[in-house]
Predict the 3D structure of the following.
Amino acid sequence: MWAYNDPDYLLNCIVQVACNTSLRMHFEGKTLDSHTLLQGLSTALPFDTDPVSVVLVPHLDKLYIEMGRCCVSREQDPHKWINPEFHGWYVGREFMIAVDVKTGLLKDFDCFIERFYRSYHPLYNGNIPVIHPQPVGIAVTSSQGRFIGWHAVTLIRVAFDQDNVMRVYFYNPNNDSGQDWGNEVVVSTQGKGEQYGEASLPFEQFLSRLYLYHDDTIQVGIKSSLPDEAIADVKRMALTSWAADRIG
């Protein structure tokens, strides 16, 4: 995300680690230095990735986990506070989540879907593109459509492909962006307008697996009426997969 949004900050992080063997970040005014923190989830260098990640991931891992510890006593999803602090100023300050953290049940799902259309679909947000790629949360499902777990990806852009299908283009950091998520939701990595490293899904399919995203309150452009049939299709795909048992 820094390579897209803040490359000079990325370079500064590399210099910090190269010179100090440590990376400094701040969380709500508190200074965090990676060399003073406890071990994160990573127990070995990630040699199966790019050189920048090999250098930074062990430090980022510890900083991210520490930010999580700072949010342990909070009742909402910790990504609400961690994502803007960890990733940067460009992360939308409005936090939208489709589930109640305590119960795991769907919460304000209609609003969640409709706002994503208003925020990210060019035909319904006044043709405003994604300026800064955003962290979002996916409910990962198996090839049978069964819920597996929560996973973070980066929403890069939303655009028509060569067949005039509106698609969400995203980066999936698990080294395997081509996946069958069940019920005919199959991630594409080439042939649908993807640039190098991108994965994509049709807008409605992507939204059917989305459970968390960020937004801002800046609203510009002329907005069209939302597509009721497409929204109903999104809900159907969610309720027949990861959200099947999440209705209170």
Notes: Helices lie at 2-5, 7-20, 51-70, 79-87, 109-120, 203-208, 228-239. Strands lie at 24-27, 30-33, 94-97, 134-141, 147-160, 166-171, 199-202, 210-215.
